[in-house]
Amino acid sequence: MSTDSKNLSKPISQEDNDDIDLMALLLVLLKGWKIVIFFAVLGLLIGILYSRYVNPTYKSDALIQIEENSQGIAALGESISELVGSEVSKAETEAELIRSRMILEPVVNLLHLRIRLSDPNISAIDKIKSNSIDTQFNTPEGVLLKTEGGQIQVSQFDVSQGYLNQSFTLTRSGPGFLLSNGFDDFKGQIGQAHKFNGVNGQIHIMVNDLPATDYPINIVKQSVKATTDAINSSLSVVERGQKTGIIQLSMTGTNQQQVTAILNQIVISYVNQNQSRGTEETTKTLAFMETQIPLLKQKLEDSEAVFNEFRKKYGTIDVGQEAGILLGENAQIDAQLNELKLKKADLTTYYTEEHPLVIQINEQLQVLNSRKQEIDNTIAGLPEIQREFLKLSEDTAINREIYLTLLKNYEQLKIVKAGQGGFARIIDLPISTFNAIAPKKLQIMTLALLLGAMLGAILVLLRSLLRNLVKDPERLEAKTGIPVIATIPRSPLLSRLSKSKKSADRMLAHVDHNSLSYEAIKSLRTNLMFGMPKEGLTARSAKVILITGESPGVGKSFIVANLSEVFAQLNKKILVIDADMRLGELHKMFNMSQYNGLADYLMQDNSRLTQIDNIQKDNAVSNLGIADFIHPTAMDHIDFIPRGKHPHNPASLLMNDNFGQLMAELKSQYDYIIIDSPPVLAASDAMVLGQYADKVLMVTRYDDSIEGQLVYAVKQMNKSNIQVDGIILNDVQQGLMSKYSYHYNYAYGNNQ
Question: What is the reported pLDDT for 248?
Answer without folding.
Answer: 95
